Amino acid sequence: MSSNSIDFCLSCSKKGHANHNITKCTKCKDTVNKGIGANCTTDLNLSRFDKMIFDPLKYQNDVIDDSDGDEFKCRTCTYMMPDQFSTSTLASKDNNFSILNVNTRSLSKKFEKLKECIKSTKHDFTIIGLSETHFKNKPHDYYKLTGYNTEYVNRIDREKGGVCLYVSENVKYKLRKDLSNATSNYEACFIEIDQENDKNIIVGVLYRAHTSIDSFIQDINPTFEKIANENKTCYVMGDFNIDLLKEDTCRPTRDYINMVFSYSFIPTIFKPTRITNETATIIDNILTNNQDAVNSAILITDISDHFPTVLVSKFNQKTNHKKQSSTTYKRIFSDGNIRLFKHKLSQVKWHEEFDGIDVNDDYDKCINIFKNLYDECLPLTKYTPNRRKDPLLPWITKGLLKSINVKNKLYKEYKRCPNERKFTKFKEYRNKLHTLVRKSKRNYYDDKFLKAKDNIKKKLGQLLIVY
Predict the structure, then answer these.
(1) Fewest CB atoms less than 10 Å from the CB: which of 66, 123, 213, 234?
(2) Which residues are CB-neighbours of 23 under 8 A, at least 6 positions away?
């Protein structure tokens, strides 16, 4: 900072002046103007971005008839650590509808980090929306989350992109194929949540490719129009790659905002979600036409270079949510069932079943007998995963979870006041933590294999029966 410049402290939002001397901030140790260094805060707020706020309410009177006194009420949009979420008012039981929106920048690389983040919040989100999944085909079962159903839309004919929705099994819903789409401008996946005593709720996740904003508006406009005509509560989350802070300087951005508000939607995230040393942009958001009170937050974690965003609201209290009908099934390979299956097979008079005239007919008879006995003795039974028995990342101990929270705090400190020293401190801690997590995971599975070593032949036999 030159002695004749006007600048601001990276740790507080106050500007310095040309007549201020150069000094070291006593709190964050960064070079600042002497006149503002004493005001630097040590809390975890990203205070240098407090004035970089998009004000959605200034558009409100242009698109909403508030003669009845109703207005959009997005009460809060705060930065917080994932572990702070569970103790915040956002996690209140009154807020029984919650959305987590994450740009993963390749889910295959960030899946465990995503689960770490979810585990740190200690919260069961109703919907989790992911953008930039980078999948080319149907997601492997490895990428399923216990207690959630999965819907997805991949990018067509190009690399990267793609979106995915994890929907709580406590929610009854249907896929909206008429709204889900993959074009040259965006990918989107929409579902509709059934409510017995109220309007259904539409929830979607969207990722806009780096194409013309004007082209994207023209492409997505029919989707918003159709949703508006259905007169249902709707939430659209995702990485829109449109910086709301440029509303005054970028005509296409302003046109996009006008389109959103013309359909009575409002952005609930109005602070930067992607922050570098030089820039801060609001490109990740959760749009809604819900005129009831909603609250939002931005989670500070290093899943990717985008911060996850959260929205909480209320379901109608009269609604009776039922489990999704697509129940998980599994076969019970107990010793008794296997003995019964072998006994039934031994009782079959194979020589009487085959006439030896047509080998194909004999083969079909054999397969049918085998499958019928298999289903009779080893039937499919309904199975509801128990989150206590099937926890996320069971190798993450309470100690490691605390260390993950420390890592997130170091990351937030670096983002709050970026310098080489803080980045190095965060990076070294992150790498050490990563080594400990890998070691804990390896020990967890070593212990599982050790306990099962006496049953290897039995387990292998069960696998052979399945295949």
Answers:
(1) 66
(2) 31, 32, 33, 34, 37
DSSP string for residues in 410-446: HHHHHHHS--HHHHHHHHHHHHHHHHHHHHHHHHHHH
- Distance of CA 376 to CAs 3, 26, 332, 342, Å? 85, 75, 12, 12
Contact 406, 436 (CB under 8 A): no
Enumerate the β-bridge partners of residue 192: 174, 202
pLDDT tens by residue, 320-373: 444 444 456 677 778 888 889 888 888 888 878 777 778 878 888 888 888 888
b/e burial code for range 325-347 (CB count within 10 A of at least 16 → b): eeeeeebebeeeebeebeeeeee
In terms of Cα–Cα distance, which of 127, 124, 262 is closest to 201? 127
Residue 121 per-residue DSSP state: H
Q: CA angle, 285 as apex, 281 and 286 as ends, to 5°? A: 165
DSSP per position, 250-291: -HHHHHHHHHHHHTT-EES--S-SEE-SS-EE--EEEEE---
Tokens of residue 420, six digits: 């080489």
Tokens coding 136: 């080319």
CA–CA separation, 10 vs 27, rounded Å?
A: 12
Based on its alpha-carbon atoms, the radius of gyration of the chain, rounded to whole angstroms, reads 27
Residues 54, 260: Cα–Cα separation, whole Å: 14
Residue 231 backbone class (left: φ over 0; alpha: ψ -120 to 50; beta: rest) = left
Q: Which pLDDT does position 186 carry in this prediction?
A: 96
- Cβ–Cβ under 8 Å, residues 11 and 25: yes
Distance between CA atoms of 128 and 148, rounded to whole angstroms? 9
Question: What is the rounded average pLDDT of the residues 437-461?
Answer: 74
The SS3 of residue 372 is helix
Sequence-distant (≥ 6) Cβ neighbours of residue 246 within 8 angstroms: 253
| CB 151, CB 125: distance < 8 Å | no
Beta bridge partners of 128: 100, 166
> Which pair of tokens denotes residue 358?
């047509």
Extract the tokens encoding 17. Answer: 């002046």
Q: Which amino acid is at 86?
A: S
Of 285, 287, 300, 251, residue with least CA distance to 404: 300
Alpha-carbon gap, residue 64 to 17, rounded angstroms: 42
Query: C-alpha angle 92/327/445, rounded to 5°?
Result: 80
pTM here? 0.71
Give per-residue pLDDT as tens, 141-163.
889 998 999 999 999 888 899 99
